[in-house]
């Protein structure tokens, strides 16, 4: 089994970390335990040139680094010049591969409405990336943003992808339910995949669930039964890699992975955020600090009880509106999924300090260095083994795996909160308050 994160970005994308380089993505893939990582942003000229300079084809439609980075800690980890943290003795070594990808923001009018859809494009070689980039440059400035905004409909974007020489380019709707920029979102989306992609909708074989939905939520709508549910991080900083991810039991190759996704044979499922943690889970109005369940919001005709303005309708209400099943029905051959909480968030709760604090990052480095990578710790290492290392961490991991969590839903761009303990746990005694 191997793990793939198929939605990332570069430092050329707006609102993304300046440390998102090829080297840093590689280092954090090792730290997380990710074998295949998307390149992101291949439509950006400077990033595409950097990818061409630093990656070489592996003969399987994926890419390796020409020269792997040395042992200096990746950005976001504590410096230790006497003993660099990122060394083969501390982190399980994986043969990390890159998959060429990009995210495109389509903003256009259709059916009397303004549509704002984000879609992911995947290609197996640089010639395809260059060909697609040249075609897309007719519809917007590709150098302005690693995630370019184009005056091109999702349907016509898909047509370009399908026309790519070689026939091996694929399009997957990104974070399909997000209100503002998605295929099915409440603000700029459609009421069906078919309405969005029209005569080409049969070429859509997968969608990305996004942080605010999980496969079970999507299984409430029979129209999506034919689609495979993918989940990836949409990381805007390298530390966020793998907050959602995909699991494969296949050959590590571009063609084999997409065959597995299309036919659900060798695709094992996903690691998922608890959807309440996503920042568009429930409805709400951020300016007024108002968060509403779908039921509460609908009772108010989707208006803020404080200011009277329309609320941002979140993913849960949107699914409730379109679903034709009261309960999820897992489609035939559809793989299951497991919830995860990023290790830094678990350690932040245990230590009672910020997720980016030096204390948490030091604990993160020590913990991952003891277990090989983050995903092994979160899902594979027996709880008993973790208990010998840290009883409190072991109990936190046990609760996460069992779904015994306290959920506070996100809304209108505000992340939700998933807690494992009531009150503050005691590091000294292991007491759980």
TrEMBL record:
The keyword Nuclease applies. The keyword Repeat does not apply. GO terms for molecular function: endonuclease activity. Keywords: Endonuclease, Hydrolase, Nuclease. CDD domains: PfuEndoQ-like. InterPro entries: Pol/histidinol_Pase-like. This is Endonuclease Q family protein. It comes from Terrimonas ginsenosidimutans.
């Amino acid at each position: 089994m191997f793990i793939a994160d198929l939605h990332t970005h570069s430092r050329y994308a707006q609102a993304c970390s300046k440390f998102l380089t090829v080297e840093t993505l590689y280092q954090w893939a090792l730290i997380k335990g990710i074998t295949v990582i998307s390149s992101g942003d291949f439509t950006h000229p400077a990033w595409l040139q950097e990818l061409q300079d630093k990656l070489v084809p592996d003969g399987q439609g994926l890419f390796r680094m020409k020269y792997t980075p040395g042992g200096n800690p990746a950005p976001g980890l504590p410096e230790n010049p006497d003993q660099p943290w990122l060394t083969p003795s501390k982190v399980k070594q994986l043969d990390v591969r890159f998959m060429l990808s990009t995210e495109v923001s389509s903003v256009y009018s259709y059916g009397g409405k303004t549509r704002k859809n984000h879609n992911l494009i995947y290609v197996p070689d640089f010639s395809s990336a260059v060909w697609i980039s040249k075609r897309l440059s007719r519809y917007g400035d590709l150098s302005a943003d690693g995630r370019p905004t184009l005056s091109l409909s999702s349907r016509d974007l898909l047509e370009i992808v399908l026309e790519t020489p070689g026939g091996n380019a694929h399009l997957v709707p990104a974070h399909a339910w997000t209100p503002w920029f998605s295929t099915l979102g409440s603000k700029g989306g459609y009421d069906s995949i078919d309405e969005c992609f029209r005569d080409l909708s049969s070429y859509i074989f997968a969608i990305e669930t996004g942080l605010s939905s999980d496969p079970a939520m999507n299984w409430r709508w029979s129209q999506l039964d034919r689609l495979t549910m993918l989940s990836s991080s949409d990381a805007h900083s390298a530390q966020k890699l793998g907050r959602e991810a995909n699991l494969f039991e296949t050959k590590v190759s571009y063609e084999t992975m997409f065959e597995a996704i299309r036919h659900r044979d060798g695709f094992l499922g996903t690691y998922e955020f608890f959807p309440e943690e996503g920042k568009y889970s429930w409805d709400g109005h951020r300016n007024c600090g108002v968060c509403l369940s779908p039921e509460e919001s609908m009772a108010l005709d989707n208006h803020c009880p404080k200011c009277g303005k329309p609320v941002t309708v979140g993913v849960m209400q949107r699914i409730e509106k379109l679903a034709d099943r009261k309960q999820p029905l897992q489609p035939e051959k559809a793989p299951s999924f497991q919830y995860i909480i990023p290790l830094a968030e678990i350690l932040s709760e245990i230590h009672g300090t910020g997720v980016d604090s030096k204390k948490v990052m030091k604990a993160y480095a020590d913990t991952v260095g003891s277990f090989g990578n983050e995903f092994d710790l979160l899902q594979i290492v027996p709880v008993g083994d973790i208990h010998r290392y840290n009883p409190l961490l072991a109990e936190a991991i046990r609760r996460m795996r069992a779904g015994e969590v306290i959920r506070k839903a996100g809304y209108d761009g505000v992340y939700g909160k998933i807690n494992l303990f009531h009150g503050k746990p005691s590091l000294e005694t292991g007491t759980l308050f």
